[in-house]
Amino acid sequence: MKPLKILHMYADILDLYGDSGNMEVLQYRCNMRQIPCECHYYHRGDPIPDFSAYDLIYLGGGADLEQRMLSADLLRCKNSLQKAYTEGVFFLMICGGYQLMGNFYRDADGNELPGLGLFDYYTIAPNSRKKRCIGNIVIQTTITGEPLDVVGFENHGGQTSGVSKPFGKVLFGNGNVFEGAEEGYCEKNVIATYLHGPLLSKNPKLADYILRSCLQHHTDQPVVLQPLDDALENACHDILCARLLKKEHSSHPIAKNDKM
After folding, report:
1. Which residue among 8, 69, 114, 169 has the highest number of C-beta atoms inside a 10 angstrom radius?
2. Strands 133-141 and 168-172
């Protein structure tokens, strides 16, 4: 089996709230299934790689300072990243990475950073830095083919508008804008979201959707993943959703014995 190839961009800059843990989760779930997995890194100023040679391109979260630090370098990669996107490489982008793939980001001081323009949305921060969408969040997505509750943590001032294909509808929290109804952006091979946490540690079904999509990148055959023992991960997910949505706890024994 060909190794799953991941490119983690700006890992030294974009790593809010444990975002790098998303790549650790994917590598762990590959290793448990004996799927070869390679994680490479791209840093500012590196030679522009062949982005199309990867199955997954990942950008984590970063605040205004970090986005200013890497904006020019990201634009340098625009054509190669556009080519990878059109060729079906999977893109996973969190918070700052999400914002920079749109048309532009305007910060609280009115300074505007050009985005990559890969997608049509744009982000504008309110004038006051105290106005933020912050706290736990639950959204419901159908990206896996059936309704799936996804839980995470959001902390962003930027308000993202012009989203044509949201990642999911907001069940608890804010989302793309204050008290919004929708969160993130998605396509078949794209997930862009404000959910930190890291996202994939709390949402194993979403992690496996991404793995299947990446493994199917070079084949027309459906990929069936070996089931893993996700009892602890699912209990954590169910308990968090239950608390936030005020539902009954999962019938899973770990959830029943929860002492948190």
Report:
1. 8
2. antiparallel
Report how far residue 140's alpha carbon sits from residue 155's, in angstroms, rounded to the nearest whole number: 19
Residues with a catalytic annotation lie at 95, 196
Tell me whether strands 56-59 and 168-172 are parallel, antiparallel or unpaired. unpaired
pLDDT in tens, 54-90: 999 999 999 999 999 999 999 999 999 999 999 999 9
Rounded CA separation 157/155 (Å): 7
Q: What single DSSP character describes residue 150? A: E
pTM value is 0.93
Q: Which residues are paired to 169 by β-bridges? A: 140, 182
List, in sequence order, every residue forming a beta bridge with 56; answer none if it has no partner: 6, 90
What pLDDT digit, counting tens, does each position of 158-203 carry? 999 999 999 999 999 999 999 999 999 999 999 999 999 999 999 9
Task: Name the nearest CA neighbour of 87 among 222, 224, 11, 188.
Answer: 188
